[in-house]
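Propose amino acids for all 240 sites.
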């Protein structure tokens, strides 16, 4: 109970961080990216959206096949948090090595980083679901995973909207059918575009790739842990 109280305090701080407006540079970058996206023909948007949608769905299936299904129903919240931290270290190391390797190869290997990093992130989120006792075989749990991903890598407004869904998941999930895939892919691309473009520069890209993937995974790990903490505590309160 003492640990759960500490977690509740941590969640208040994290929630404030999520709701905080981005800095001026990020706001200007988002405006520029929105303007650029407006110049891209609708047909091209549909092609990109379908490509990423299919890539994410294929990754979801693949991640589910290799994720340990054992659910840790007898574990405390502290034990689950510690286990996820251990998993985060392992996944982050993999992402750093992958980012350095693809970044060192210049443009062609740099482009390969997108699907590779995406698959590592999704595999981590499937493991996070299992750590907190949720079955990613269920469609609603896959939707939750996608919302955690979107919360981690979105603009200010979308982040607020997604946090509200996660905080009220049991109620909101009944109204959700699928993701808005165009928004999903555009938010993710806009979030990582600037740093990933630098990764395409031969030589320098290796440093950027490793550093970027390290930070992206830290963001994802923090978001996943707190999203599942919210659900865990809500379930505890509901069950008395």
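Proposal:
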């Amino acid at each position: 109970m003492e640990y759960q109280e500490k977690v509740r305090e941590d969640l208040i701080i994290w929630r404030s961080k999520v709701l905080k407006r981005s800095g001026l540079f990020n706001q200007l970058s988002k405006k520029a990216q929105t303007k650029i996206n407006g110049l891209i023909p609708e047909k091209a948007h549909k092609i990109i959206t379908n490509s990423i949608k299919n890539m994410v769905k294929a990754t979801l299936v693949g991640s589910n096949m290799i994720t340990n299904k054992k659910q840790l129903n007898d574990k405390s919240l502290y034990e689950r948090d510690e286990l996820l931290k251990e998993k985060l270290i392992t996944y982050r190391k993999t992402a750093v090595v992958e980012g350095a390797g693809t970044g060192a190869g210049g443009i062609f290997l740099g482009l390969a980083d997108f699907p590779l990093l995406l698959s590592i992130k999704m595999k981590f989120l499937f493991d996070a679901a299992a750590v907190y006792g949720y079955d990613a075989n269920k469609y609603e749990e896959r939707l939750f995973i996608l919302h955690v991903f979107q919360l981690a890598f979105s603009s200010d407004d979308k982040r607020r909207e997604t946090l509200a869904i996660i905080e009220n998941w049991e109620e909101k999930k009944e109204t959700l059918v699928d993701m808005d895939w165009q928004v999903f892919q555009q938010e993710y691309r806009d979030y990582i575009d600037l740093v990933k473009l630098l990764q395409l520069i031969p030589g320098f890209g290796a440093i950027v790739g490793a550093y970027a993937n390290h930070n992206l995974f830290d963001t994802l790990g923090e978001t996943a842990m707190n999203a599942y903490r919210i659900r865990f505590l809500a379930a505890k309160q509901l069950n008395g």
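The CA atoms of residues 231 and 237 lie 10 Å apart. The chain has a mean pLDDT of 79.
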